[in-house]
Amino acid sequence: METITKINTTEKLISRFESVKNSLFGDAKIRELAAEAFSRQGVPGRKHEEYKYVNMELALKGDLLLDSGVSVSSSFISSLRLVKDAIMIVIVNGRLSEEHTRFNNNISGLQIMSVADASSNSSFQKHYAQYADVNADPFIALNTLLASGGVFIHVDRNTVVEFPVHIIHVSSSAQSIIVNQRNLIVLEENAQLNVIESFLTANGSEKVFNNALTEIFVAENAVLNHNKIQEEAENGHLLNTTQVLQKKQSVFSTNNFTLSGMFIRNNLNIVLDDEHIESNLNGLYLTKGHQTVDNHTLVDHRKPNCNSNELYKGIIEEKSTATFNGKIFVRKDAQKTNAFQSNKNILLSDDGTINTKPQLEIYADDVKCSHGTSTGKLDEDKIFYLRARGLSEDSAKKLLMHAFASEVVEKVKIEELRDYIEQKITQRFA
């Protein structure tokens, strides 16, 4: 029965492509290869090792259309601004909204445009669909097949962009839809950029399954700080893939905060493809109700003398489910690698579930690598200590949870954004 459903769902999505393929941007050959890859892989079931803890058939259940054309108000968009001086890019249901986007393309060394407009750009053509492999994951293939919009950001060599770029992804529809937005961020040599991505579903929206994919190229000596805030509504479904390629002496830091949403799946894949590279991966997920949050990370060390640091923390409440599956891959030539990974979780309910699977796969012999995981309840000794100093039991627990989360929040370098996240955490445990 599961196989029949799987085939039907896959074929339904392929048929959606056939009905709109002539209106889509870019190279038709790339989409043809993606169609073959998606048809071969299909929607993954529980027997698929990478998706064993989530029910993708359930997440894709229903007659999901491709486009709804719903607009959102300017006042609503204005309320989503997190950093006052940020360059604001608004993507509604996968397409860049010219009405709400606020940026100045006269900024020296910075180029921003929709992926549809960028399809004839030489730099776009050089990097688009070069890093996210359609054969590696069915949802990469599906996004490549159905991508209808998104944003292309290019930073010239030796350019330091003063203001953060804030990409606001809004899902809003009067009917159930599937969105496949595609972003491409390219930093040339010695460039520096701060990016904020926020994901949310507008109030009153029907189900939106957002299959978002961002490819990132960080050239030699370039520095990219990347922050993601996920605040989907109760019916929000987000599968977010970020594929990164780093070159010599580059630095890539990413901070991912999952604050709400019915179903959130994060795939973060980083390839360290040269020497003296630094990668920092941090994540915080707060789950409650029947929410499902599934974090999968892959750090691929291909060359010597590189460092990666990974810290993911979760607080699981009520009947929610969280997963952390982190893999560090050290290839034979990647000597002198330093790679560290840590996953820590607090279970606030006997009905909550945490699946954690840190992994090391090492083929080099001169490395320093470690991974660790811990899951437990709040420390009773610490609660007792705080209560002895006048705090109520409830206040003591809230203080401990906030302190637990703050280790990740402190990684955010943009003060306004850090304050916003702190405020959200405070509200969550108030």
From the structure above, extract its key features.
single chain, 430 residues, 10-stranded mixed sheet, globular, disordered N terminus
Write the layout of secondary structure elements.
Elements: H1 2-20, H2 28-41, H3 56-59, H4 74-78, E1 87-92, E2 95-96, E3 110-114, H5 115-118, H6 122-127, H7 138-146, E4 151-155, E5 165-171, E6 177-179, E7 182-187, E8 192-201, E9 208-218, E10 223-231, E11 236-246, E12 251-260, E13 263-272, E14 278-287, E15 292-301, E16 307-316, E17 321-330, E18 337-347, E19 353-362, E20 367-376, H8 380-387, H9 393-409, H10 415-428
Parallel strand pairs: 1-5, 4-7, 5-8, 6-9, 7-9, 8-10, 9-11, 10-12, 11-13, 12-14, 13-15, 14-16, 15-17, 16-18, 17-19, 18-20
Antiparallel strand pairs: 1-2, 3-4
**Rg of Cα set:** 21 Å
Which sequence of SSEs, written as H and E, runs from N to C? Answer: HHHHEEEHHHEEEEEEEEEEEEEEEEEHHH
The proportion of residues forming helix, as a percent range, comes to: 10-25%
Q: Which sheet architecture does the biggest sheet show? A: 10 strands, mixed
- In terms of DSSP E residues, the strand content is 35-45%
Number of strands: 20
Could you say which structural class the secondary elements and strand pairing correspond to? Answer: alpha/beta
Q: How far apart are the termini?
A: 45 Å
Count up the helices: 10
Give the domain tally.
2
